[in-house]
């Protein structure tokens, strides 16, 4: 049955579907940096929040506008969601800073639309053919609420996953999820990963205790493989509520 499922729903592997970032046709503008005492937590009442990841390991430093000033921001190369940033607009423009004598110049590099009503997203950056590309993944409580068991593919290849009895193909930078009736009961969910090819192969299997009044999300950074030492999947697992901006 599983073999038939993947034969029906497993089309030929396509290139990673990443959206190109839009480069602003604007000249550099003069501006000032935020005070040295600036902290992003002071902006947490903003409507939009996001986390910035550099998926290819390249260090990326930008500036973004905060009021009439510019704040430094770094795309994390670590597999961590510790850093969070805030915006009053769903359109976030990233700038490169340079100096003209004593003046600071800020040149727009790209603008990313994280979408309306997105209280928490992950912006994934990577490079292909010399161009910086991005994908936006909604990890807000609205999308991953109580009772949701989710798997987010942050790798560059698709894989198969079974959450309980639900079998899914997960494309790069996409989310597979299954909702359970909300309660304070603990559900023991069988989680299985499959490497894809001519014949899908089970590469990882584990039972996860899941409190259905909360949620559980696996952020998978590499395609699970039965060749991994200790049969471990390189993932970040988060229990409870999704990463929140407050």
TrEMBL record:
Q: Which residues constitute the signal peptide according to the record?
A: 1-25
Source organism, top-level taxon: Bacteria
User: Which UniProt keywords are given for this protein, alphabetically ordered?
Assistant: Signal
What protein does this entry describe? Uncharacterized protein
Organism source for this protein?
A: Intestinicryptomonas porci
